[in-house]
Write a structure and sequence with these properties.
The structure is a single chain. The protein has 60 residues and is α+β, with helices and mostly antiparallel strands. The chain has one domain. The chain contains one helix and four strands. The strands form two sheets. A two-stranded antiparallel sheet has the order 1-2. Strands 3-4 form a two-stranded antiparallel ribbon. A hairpin with a 5-residue loop joins β3 and β4.
Length: 60
């Protein structure tokens, strides 16, 4: 769900909310934290696999 809100400083900001698995909404900071966690886990997993492949190549 997207919503434009006016801040006290008269700036127009975009508020972004997504529905959580339990039907609740997560605010933007939580969404960003969750996405960052997913990206880091993916990055670490891929690097770990790459490191293991490198080691197995070197030991052949």
């Amino acid at each position: 769900m997207y919503k434009f809100i006016h801040t006290p400083e008269k700036r127009l900001e975009l508020e972004v909310k997504i529905a959580g698995a339990d039907g609740n909404t997560l605010d933007k900071k939580e969404m960003i934290k969750e996405k960052t966690r997913e990206i880091m886990q993916s990055f670490l997993s891929n690097n770990f696999v790459h490191i293991l492949e490198s080691i197995s190549q070197e030991t052949k």
